[in-house]
Amino acid sequence: MKKFIVFEGLDKSGKSTQIKKYKSYLEEKGYEVSLYGTWEGCPILQEFKSLITDKDRDIDKYTELFLYKAARRELFTKCIVPDIEDGKIVLVDRFTDSTLVYQGALRKISVPKLWAINNIVTDYEHPDHVFIFDISKETFLKRMNCNLDRMEAALVDNYEVASNIYRDLGLIREDTHLIKEASIEETYKEVITYSQNHLEDF
Q1: Could you say which of 65, 88, 165, 187 has the lowest number of CB atoms within 10 Å?
Q2: Mean pLDDT of 187-202
Q3: Position 202 in a domain
Q4: What is the pLDDT of residues 3-40, one digit of tens each?
């Protein structure tokens, strides 16, 4: 079984719902599973969140980037790596691809810079597999609420660019599976079918 699996996608794409369902599926099969998110897993992550998401705070784009990367470094070194070493399957709701999308598309930071920083944060380690969840603009706008944080507000204005980066990643990498928008149950079925055929031990 692959040990380090990431669920990626824009806000409201359904990835968080699917990663929880997938965790339950793996646990029912007898695997020990850890689940982490951008702000969940290590207590210090909430402190980073309060700095980054405050819509009244004016933060330089590189300050924002390094705050995100500091939080991700803490998650990687204090939670992800120890759990993998303990033999657990680690599921993460967003990881380094989201940096390419959000800081690349929304903050216009060059991809080579972002890749270099990502590699430093993860000691050049990468997920075993990534699921990317696609979402149409119509559904995306319908699901977004009016009380947006800084990143969500920027995303609304840059949906096409951000979603196209995710789609490109899903099509060009062998370790990535792009899942088109569908119902919750249809999407879950695709995740499980792919997992059984490509990720699990036989």
Answers
A1: 88
A2: 91
A3: no
A4: 999 999 999 999 999 999 999 999 999 999 999 998 88
pLDDT for residue 56 = 74
Predicted confidence (pLDDT) at residue 202 exceeds the cutoff of 60? no
Structural domain for 162, as ranges: 4-197
- The total of structural domains in the chain comes to 1
| Nearest-angstrom CA–CA distance, 202 and 188 | 21
CATH of the domain at 143: 3.40.50.300
